[in-house]
Specification:
- There is one protein chain.
- By secondary structure, this protein is an alpha+beta fold.
- It folds into two domains: 3-81; 87-256, Heat Shock Protein 90 (2-Layer Sandwich).
- It is 50% helix and 24% strand.
- The protein is built from seven helices and eight strands; from the N terminus they run H-H-E-H-E-E-H-E-E-H-H-H-E-E-E.
- A six-stranded mixed sheet has the order 6-7-5-4-2-8. A two-stranded antiparallel sheet has the order 1-3.
- Helix 1 runs antiparallel to helix 2, helix 2 packs parallel to helix 7 (200-211) and helix 4 packs antiparallel against helix 7.
- It is globular, with a radius of gyration of 20 Å.
Length: 257
């Protein structure tokens, strides 16, 4: 087969995969939301049966996880297909939107958020995928929180035409033997033929940070030699266009509900 014919077949297959994924994500999520609606109705009718309410809550959490998994697969495809051009994005608004999404997704956990940057002077050159990066980090913190409460602090420091974002939580931490490959765990599972959803969230974080031309690192937060959380650092470009004032993101670390 000629090279151009092989290329045409490859493009056709990729297009078919995209159409199928769009169809599945739409239809699966519709069924999931419908099922969750019925479960919530049942839950409201069995207020006195704590055991049954617990099972219903678990079922709804599982459905949310399935929906989230489907959305992440589609998101990774979108990252590949959608070229980055950049637009002014307010960091504070993105964080608040991500926090709302994370709390909905994991409503059996609590999120306590502190922002160490200004809430009005931090415009980034980003796009809609920034919200997904932040949501995945928050979900990861909530999932591995201690006693079901995640305390997260997000700071931003201006460095020329970019911002250093420092994200810190007080969770259980990431074991040393997993740190090196934590952002590429999902991709490795695909290449090795052992496909599963583990690591997909941080894979989204990694790929979005790469989209913005930066890198992301992680380290332990320690106190008296003990790990008390995880700190992520990543670079986001500052908005330098005509629309919007970038500002320097200076702030004083105020807690947010």
């Amino acid at each position: 087969m000629a090279d151009n014919e092989e290329g045409t077949v490859g493009v056709g297959k990729e297009r078919d995969v995209r159409v199928l994924l769009d169809l599945l994500s739409h239809d699966i999520n519709n069924h999931i939301y419908g099922s969750m609606g019925y479960l919530e109705l049942i839950e409201s009718l069995v207020e006195d049966d704590e055991k049954l309410r617990r099972y219903l809550s678990f079922s709804m959490s599982e459905l949310k996880s399935i929906s989230h998994l489907v959305d992440n697969v589609k998101l990774l495809m979108d990252l590949k297909d959608d070229p980055f051009t950049g637009e002014p994005v307010d960091l504070h608004e993105s964080v608040m939107s991500a926090a709302e999404a994370a709390r909905y997704q994991m409503d059996d956990k609590e999120l306590k958020l502190t922002l160490g940057f200004s809430t009005s002077e931090c415009n980034l050159r980003a796009d809609r995928f920034l919200n997904h990066l932040l949501t995945q980090l928050l979900l990861n913190s909530m999932k591995y929180s201690r006693n079901g409460i995640a305390h997260v602090k997000i700071d931003a420091k201006r460095e020329g035409d970019r911002f250093m974002i420092i994200y810190e939580d007080d969770g259980t931490g990431i074991p040393d033997n997993l740190k090196d490959g934590v952002f590429t765990r999902f991709e490795r599972s695909i290449h090795e033929g052992d496909v599963h959803g583990k690591g997909m969230g941080l894979s989204v974080v990694y790929n979005v940070s790469k989209r913005y031309g930066g890198d992301i690192t992680l380290e332990d937060v320690t106190e008296n030699g003990e790990v008390i959380g995880t700190r992520f650092r990543f670079i986001l470009p500052a908005w330098t266009g005509k629309k919007g004032d970038t500002g320097d993101c200076s702030g004083n670390g105020k807690p947010h509900p």
